[in-house]
Amino acid sequence: MRFAGRLHDWNEQRGFGFIRPTAGGDDIFVHGSALPMLRPGPDEVLSFEVALDRQGRKKAVHVRRQADEASALATDRLRDAQRVERALARKGAGVHHGPGIVQGLVMMVITGVLAWSAYRAYGVLAARHPAPEQAVAERSAGPLQDVKRASASPFRCDGRTQCSQMTSCAEATFFLRNCPGTKMDGDGDGVPCEQQWCSAESR
């Protein structure tokens, strides 16, 4: 604990004196070695701590001049603030930085890659195996597409079933695909009248 007082009865030849405490009480012995390098003048206000000598008598130690006291106090406060800042930085590094955040980022990247892979796999499976509703729609749309194609064709089903009754490969193909009871695809390969109208040379 520090006290305040004024330098009193200083003996320059013997290198010691006394400090009279501002709060009152007995004068405190002070040796020149306890004083700051710049010797204080008579009755100058000083700051000091109290210790006991070998005989158990009180003496002033760590004496500071008033100006030095203000500077030392500011230095002490700055040093304390720096210690607190370093402690908080070390604590913050353990909580908010370092391996913790790196592990979090790695987990986010891995999760994103897995999600993207699952999405791509689902898209491939969906393309290969359409949903039941989609398959039914496609199957039901098949005859409709055939009807649309048939209605857009210049040919009409009129009961003819033989290749000799056709006038072109296009007409024979239309009858084979759209008209019942045709007899124009003997080998069943989907190409009608291969001997007359749809030979390899004419295709």
From TrEMBL:
One GO term describing the cellular component: cytosol
Q: Name one GO molecular function term.
A: nucleic acid binding
User: Which Gene3D superfamilies did the record assign?
Assistant: Nucleic acid-binding proteins
Q: Which domain of life is it from?
A: Bacteria
Q: Which residues form the CSD domain?
A: 2-65
Q: Which SUPFAM superfamilies match?
A: Nucleic acid-binding proteins (SSF50249)
Pfam families this protein is in? CSD, Excalibur
Cellular compartment(s): Cytoplasm
> Major place of localization?
cytoplasm
| CDD domains listed in its UniProt record | CSP_CDS (cd04458)
- Which SMART domains would you find in this protein's record? CSP (SM00357), Excalibur (SM00894)
* Name the UniProt record assigns to this protein: Excalibur calcium-binding domain-containing protein
